[in-house]
Specification:
Layout: H1 2-12, H2 14-25, H3 37-41, H4 64-90, H5 95-122, H6 129-141, H7 145-166, H8 168-178, E1 183-188, E2 193-198, E3 207-210, E4 219-224, E5 227-230, H9 232-235, E6 241-243, E7 248-249, E8 254-255, E9 260-266, H10 272-285, H11 289-316, H12 319-328, H13 332-351, E10 354-356, H14 359-365, E11 370-374, H15 375-379, E12 385-391, H16 397-407, H17 414-425, E13 433-439, E14 443-448, E15 451-456, H18 458-463, E16 480-486, E17 489-497, H19 504-513, E18 518-522, H20 527-537, E19 541-543, H21 548-559, E20 564-568, H22 574-579, E21 582-585, H23 592-597, E22 600-602, H24 609-643, H25 649-668, H26 675-689
Parallel strand pairs: 11-18, 11-20, 18-19, 20-21, 21-22
Antiparallel strand pairs: 1-2, 1-3, 3-9, 4-7, 4-9, 5-6, 5-8, 10-22, 12-17, 13-14, 14-15, 15-16, 16-17
Helix pairs in contact: 1-7, 2-10, 4-5, 4-7, 5-6, 5-7, 6-7, 6-12, 7-25, 8-10, 10-13, 11-12, 12-24, 12-25, 13-24, 13-25, 14-24, 16-17, 19-24, 24-25
Bound molecules: adenosine-5'-triphosphate and zinc ion.
Adenosine-5'-triphosphate binds near residues 376, 414, 438, 525 and 572.
């Protein structure tokens, strides 16, 4: 009824506007920012009425003052209606008093509904409020005030229930917002004097201090101190994470053990938490393809029902049938079928650290039949370690490492990180590198002390005109290898290894159990390494020594006969991620690149989230279908019953409210999906904490 229309308007204004509106209100941080959202959401907040935002949150959520108004109307009208029955029973001779009470009751109950219907008419919206309002008017006109009152009461009740669930997204968000404190300790001057400020006043670059036990108010980087942090609110992973100077921390996560000073890196909507919030809001206003089809025919719906009502009246002259028909035809159940389920699914995903940018992708995830994984950092943990320094001829291992470390100073590639780490452990004083350049998926070139140096894969070396000497293949068996060259001569090679992620085999097995037919792997790494990983995971197909373009090509081929999801870590596989029907980025917490290049981002590196995502999306599709089927059967079945006079108006109103509740409860089943996964992790965390 009223709310459906509101949701509809929010949709028309586009996800962004709808999302921006309540998000800006941020319900709860402080109360000065007033009700900016009312313009967007079309709320009629009474000026001077109490603030609908979070803090005092009795009922919580945008529009709760209006809900309160409705509850007041419903109560008052309900009492008057009940009173009329009581009068009728206690003072049978005072029939007039009873009908006056019923009339007032009906009036109070019907008024909000009729006003909304008139507003809709004025706005040129023939949707569904008109049906209900007409039904009530018809009941009033037939002087059956008690019936009119009871119908209006139950319809108002439905509106109230709907408001509370339509703001289901709102409530999930309020839970998120509760995670961030309202005030922060800002540091100023050289003496770091603390000053308490509102979080909304913080700007990028400000310094703040956070004590153990407190939640971080914004995204920030540690500049002094170290601590462990519980990031479960964003990643769904409760294992505490160690943080020290230079580490990033995120708004809404909890500082456990240490006092830390931080530099603010992101505030408000730009924080990871802010993005999660946006995602949930978008889910509410998003429309899956089925909803789009329904919307297309919605315009014909009300006129059709009205025509049916006229026909019924013409043949039966039974106003009660007409009223019943118009009440039961109100399609709340159908309209709520999708958004309630989608919001529940997205909220469940967010709790698991699965960030779904577009709800269409939630639906798509249920139809994926092929997966293509990147190797390094995705199936393996990407924490390479150097297992062999193999200099040629006169060159010493230290010299090899020196050149490699200096050339790789500015690269973030896993191989570069491994080299830098070893160089640091060996306490090497690295040389300055100039003219640094990285060829994605190939290697880096730089000038060290003015001498051109290269480090990268063998065939790239050859392309760059450096001959790589032949050597025994068994030497490098199972290792990732990069060559180091200085001034056109190869100095030697460095061998690396990394480990398979612990949950990788289980993940592949789970995907197969879910009916995924094909799992493949692409990698820039060498054949022998790829072979061993593919064998351990029993992968259907793999391609090694790919350039980033090669990965795209591979995905294109798979796409020809399946719906394919590409899983990667964002390093040299962003184009492949974008090429997949679905791109899933791992370890996206704090990494904007990963979030931007993928359609779905996993905040953690836990691969078990992937089968969980497929499962969740299938479950939500099933629930949406159930809801739609139930809603349509209910409405059409009810219409048939009422046309033939087998239902009363009051029953229609009661069942209408009941059907709405059924939809809401059915969707709520999604919210707990995946809890067992977090539970398992909690147990594991508890185990590791024990000595
Ligand atoms: N910064 C770098 N320094 C040295 N070698 C590099 C660098 N970047 C890429 N390479 C070389 O190019 C190869 C391919 O790199 P790419 O990032 O495409 O894949 P990868 O790291 O092997 O793993 P995957 O493709 O599975 O993620 C690497 O194996 C390495 O030999
Ligand atoms: Zn309805």
């Amino acid at each position: 009824m009223a709310e459906e229309l509101d949701m509809n308007k929010a949709n028309v204004q586009g996800g962004a506007a709808a999302a921006a509106a309540p998000a800006k209100c941020a319900c709860g941080h402080d109360h000065d920012h007033d009700h900016e959202h009312e313009h967007h959401h079309d709320h009629d907040h009474e000026p001077g009425g109490f603030c609908p935002c979070g803090h005092d949150a009795v009922s919580g959520g945008v529009g709760h003052d209006r809900a309160m108004g409705r509850i007041f109307f419903a109560l008052l009208g309900g009492i008057l209606t009940v009173n009329s029955f009581l009068l009728e029973w206690a003072l049978p001779e005072q029939a007039f008093a009873a009908s006056i009470s019923a009339l007032f009751g009906a009036f109070v109950l019907a008024l909000p509904i009729i006003i909304t219907a008139i507003k809709d008419l004025v706005n040129g919206k023939v949707y569904m409020n008109e049906l209900v309002a007409l039904a009530i008017l018809a009941a009033l006109a037939s002087a059956d005030f008690q019936t009119a009152g009871i119908i209006a009461f139950f319809l108002l009740l439905t509106i109230i229930i709907e408001t509370r669930t339509a703001s289901g997204a709102q409530r999930s968000i309020e839970e998120l917002i509760k995670l961030t404190p309202n005030t922060a300790r800002k540091l100023s001057g050289d003496d770091n004097s603390e000053q308490e400020v509102q979080v909304t006043e913080l700007k990028i670059g400000d310094r703040i201090r956070v004590r153990p036990g407190e939640n971080f108010p914004v995204d920030a980087r540690i500049i002094a101190g170290e601590s462990t942090v519980n990031q479960a609110s964003i990643t769904g992973e409760s294992l505490p994470v160690e943080k020290s100077v230079g580490s990033d921390v995120f708004a809404g996560t909890q500082n456990l053990t240490g006092l830390v000073d931080l530099e603010v890196t992101k505030v408000g909507e730009d924080t990871t938490l802010g993005k999660v919030k946006d995602m949930i809001l978008q889910a509410e206003s998003s429309r899956t393809p089925v909803v789009r089809i329904i919307d297309r025919y919605a315009g014909y719906y009300t006129p059709t029902v009205l025509m049916l009502a006229c026909v019924t009246w013409w043949f039966t002259e039974d106003i009660s049938r007409v009223i019943t028909l118009m009440v039961i035809a109100c399609p709340c159940a159908v309209v709520l079928a999708t958004p309630t389920a989608v919001v529940a699914a997205v909220a469940a995903a967010a709790r698991l650290g699965i960030f779904i940018k577009n709800v269409a992708h939630l639906e798509l995830a249920s139809k994926i039949t092929a997966f293509v994984f990147d190797k390094t950092g995705t199936l393996t943990d990407g924490l390479l370690s150097v297992v062999k320094l193999n200099p040629f001829g006169e060159v010493t291992p230290a010299e090899l490492l020196m050149v490699a470390g200096s050339a790789e100073r500015y690269s973030n590639h896993p191989t570069a990180v491994a080299i830098q780490k070893l160089a640091e452990e060996a306490k090497l004083e690295l040389d300055e590198a100039t003219e640094f350049q990285e060829a994605p998926g190939k290697g880096v070139s730089a000038k060290i002390n003015g001498v051109p140096c290269l480090i990268g894969r063998a065939n790239w070396m050859s392309d760059m005109g450096v001959t790589v000497p032949e050597h025994n293949a068994s030497e490098t068996e199972g290792m990732s290898v990069v060559y180091v060259a200085r001034d056109g001569k190869v100095l030697g090679w460095i061998g690396f290894k990394d480990k398979l992620r612990r949950e990788a085999p289980a993940m592949i097995a789970d995907l197969r159990r879910l009916g995924v037919r094909y799992c493949a792997m692409v990698t820039g790494d060498r054949q022998s390494v790829a072979e061993s990983v593919a064998a351990q995971l029993q992968i259907d197909e793999f391609k090694s020594e790919c350039l980033p373009e090669g990965k795209v090509e591979f995905v294109e081929n798979v796409k020809k006969n399946s719906r394919v999801a590409v899983v990667g870590d964002g390093v040299n596989d962003a184009p492949a991620l974008a090429e997949g029907d679905l791109g899933i980025a791992m370890g996206a917490i704090g990494s904007d690149i990963a979030i931007n290049s993928a359609s779905i981002a996993l905040m953690t590196n836990d691969l078990r989230r992937i089968p969980m995502l497929v499962f969740l999306s299938r479950k939500s599709r099933m629930i949406i279908n159930q809801n739609l089927l139930f809603g349509m059967l209910f409405v059409f079945g009810g219409m048939i019953l009422s046309v033939f006079g087998w239902m009363t108006p009051i029953w229609a109103a009661v069942l209408h409210a009941g059907s709405t509740l059924i939809i809401i409860f059915n969707s709520a089943r999604l919210v707990r999906t995946g809890e067992e996964l977090t539970l398992e992790e909690n147990l594991a965390a508890a185990e590791t904490e024990q000595p």
